[in-house]
Every structure is written in structure tokens, then in C-alpha cells.
Design a protein that fits this description.
single chain; about 350 residues; alpha/beta; Rossmann fold; 7-stranded mixed sheet; 4-stranded parallel sheet; 12 helices; elongated; disordered N terminus
Length: about 350
């Protein structure tokens, strides 16, 4: 156990001691790792429990002692760490959310917090930390890696906005939840001459909005990746649909592209058509994960344990060309991702 005070002047010394401690893991010796820990960070996503389950079961079957960190990085620096058995993850595969819980941590975003988290891992004898979350969570994992703590990252976020991977755990379930809700709203909208404006999650990425809009036959889809001429695209689109005999209209907006309340008011003022806003909000985060999310979560969890068995640390588990693989965490965080012009053009052809 390391014994040194947490002040700014001692941070480099403590970080060096932590790095030296983890350097004792022999890269040619698969028995060098004895204990691993897993945490979930950032927004919760359906399939996180399935990921934890896979890490725990595959890890124990590989001979590791597995520990869970409660409340993400916030719980890490506070030492909320306890051992997990295979029994503890029974009946979790089908449950939404994360039984390890998640939380934002202002403390961990500072150098002091990162070193505190690393020291807690040292106190508990944890050799490798598995982090389930999005890019923000991976940056926290990278900060630990930079001071010598071996980490593995698994992408879990409903927004599907992690650049290093084609798919993130929770995306499919969130889209299906939104689609089912919008189908129900369409039933009531069709009973009136009404426009339903539905706001879905996606502060910086419009993947949910774009795919759900296609699946529900929306008249308009608003996403943060592109600017929209409101009068020509939204107002004209609804008026054209009305003039062709349609009597109900669906507009999907990602939260990063505007608010449903504001857009509904603008539509009603411009067209005279009653417009009702609906904000799906955290409804999209809940529910039992879909088959795809359960399967992807399980395979990514196993891949994480394979990396540890092969002593390949500081990796991100990703899906590339429909295959589960891994890449360096620094490389992954340098990548960028956006909806392509081709995808946007294809969507416009359907409206």
C-alpha cells in the first residue's frame, strides 16, 4: 500500500510510485494479473448490466478475482469497491440500467482525483480496471493509464457517438424504445389533424434521431450535425404533406438541434396546424436490453478479458467491420465520427 499525502506538490511523486507498482506486472507472464475491477460511468445504457456480467463471469473463469466499483469514478476515488461473484451477476442480463450505478465526478476530473482513484486501486490490490461508458469515461480511463494503471474500455452509451467503434452498447434498445413511443404518438396524431414533435436524446450526435426518423416515416428530422432552413425544410415539408392529403405529421428532433417545445410553437405559428411537443428524455435509457445489445455486451466483455489474459492493456474494445476487436486507447480517443453526407442524402429522399 502506498502512503503519501494528497497535495499538489506530491502528485508527481505519488504517480511515479503507482506507475512503478503496476510495472511489476510481467508482460510475458499471464499470471501477473490477479485482481481486476469493473465500473460503469457516464449516462446509463441498456446492456451495461450484461457487460458487467460478461466481465465478471469470463474474468472468474479465467482465474481472476473480480471487484465492482460502485458509482463510477466518483465511487472509485472514495474507495467504494467490493468483490463480485458469479452469483452477484445472476439474473442481470435482462435488466436495464447498471446495478453498479453511475455518477458524475468533479473530483476525478482533476489530477488530484485521478491520483486518488489510482491509489484506491492500489490499496485494494487491483491490477487492471475495466471501464464501461462513453468518450468521457474513456478519457478518465486514459488519465489513469497515463500514470501507470492498466485499463480496458468498453463502449456503453445510447448515443452511439464513440468515434472508435461502429456500435455502442445500448444504442439499439434506445432506438427501439423511441420508435415504439413514436408509433403510439402517431396513433393519436392520426385521430386529429396534428403535428407531433418528438425530442430524442443526442446532444452532440443525431444517430438516434436519424434512424428513428427513418423507421417511423417522419416528415422532418433535425440533427445537430447539419443546419436546417426551418421555413423551407420543416414548414414547407409539413404544408406539402397536408396539401397532398395527409392529416398527421411527425417531426423528430435530437436535443442538440433544438427543443420540441420551441419547434412545436414555431410550426403552429407558421402553419396553423396544432403541434404537440413530446420529450422522451430518460425513457430511452430504460428498459430491458435488446438481443443485439445483450449479445454485443457479452462479446465485448469476453474480449476485454482476452486482452487482460494476453497482457494487452490500455485498450478500447470496439466493433469494426461488424467484428469485435480492440485498439489502443490513445489512438481511439483521437478518432472523430459524424453522420455522413450520404446517410443524410438518403434520408432526404424518403421524406
Amino acid at each position: 500500500m502506498l502512503d503519501i499525502r494528497y497535495d499538489e506538490n506530491n502528485l508527481p511523486e505519488l504517480a511515479n510510485l503507482i506507475a512503478k507498482n503496476y510495472d511489476q506486472i510481467d508482460e510475458n507472464d499471464k499470471t501477473g494479473v490477479k485482481r481486476i475491477a469493473v465500473l460503469t460511468s457516464g449516462g446509463d445504457a441498456p446492456g451495461m448490466n450484461a457487460t458487467i456480467r460478461a466481465v465478471v463471469r469470463a474474468g472468474i473463469n479465467a482465474g481472476f478475482d473480480v471487484f465492482g466499483v460502485t458509482r463510477g469514478f466518483h465511487g472509485l476515488w472514495k474507495g467504494e469497491i467490493s468483490q463480485i461473484s458469479t452469483r452477484d451477476v445472476s439474473e442481470t442480463l435482462q435488466r436495464g440500467g447498471t446495478f453498479l450505478m453511475t455518477a458524475r465526478s468533479k473530483t476525478f476530473s482533476t489530477p488530484v482525483g485521478v491520483v486518488k482513484g489510482a491509489r484506491m486501486l492500489d490499496i485494494y490490490g487491483i491490477d487492471v480496471l475495466v471501464v464501461i461508458g462513453g468518450d468521457g469515461s474513456f478519457k478518465g480511463a486514459r488519465d489513469l493509464a497515463r500514470i501507470g494503471v492498466p485499463v480496458i474500455g468498453i463502449p456503453g452509451t445510447i448515443d452511439n457517438d464513440v468515434a472508435s467503434t461502429e456500435y455502442t452498447i445500448g444504442f439499439d434498445t434506445a432506438m427501439n424504445t423511441a420508435m415504439e413511443a413514436i408509433d403510439k404518438l402517431r396513433d393519436t396524431a392520426s385521430s386529429h389533424e396534428r403535428c407531433s414533435v418528438i425530442e430524442v436524446m443526442g446532444r452532440r450526435a443525431g444517430y438516434i434521431a436519424l434512424n428513428v426518423g427513418i423507421a417511423t416515416g417522419a416528415e422532418c428530422i433535425l440533427i445537430p450535425e447539419i443546419s436546417t432552413d426551418f421555413d423551407k425544410i420543416v414548414v414547407r415539408g409539413i404544408l406539402d404533406s397536408r396539401n397532398k392529403g395527409k392529416r398527421h405529421y411527425i417531426v423528430i428532433v435530437a436535443e442538440g438541434a433544438g427543443t420540441a417545445t420551441d419547434i412545436a410553437k414555431r410550426i403552429e405559428d407558421a402553419t396553423g396546424i396544432e403541434a404537440r411537443p413530446t420529450i422522451l428524455g430518460h425513457l430511452q435509457r430504460g428498459g430491458s436490453p435488446s438481443l443485439r445489445d445483450r449479445t454485443t455486451a457479452s462479446l465485448m466483455g469476453v474480449r476485454a478479458i482476452d486482452c487482460i489474459l494476453e497482457n494487452r492493456f490500455n485498450r478500447l474494445i470496439v466493433q469494426r467491420d461488424d467484428k469485435i476487436t480492440d485498439l489502443d486507447i490513445e489512438e481511439g480517443l483521437k478518432m472523430t465520427k459524424s453522420i455522413s453526407a450520404e446517410e443524410i442524402a438518403q434520408t432526404k429522399r424518403l421524406s
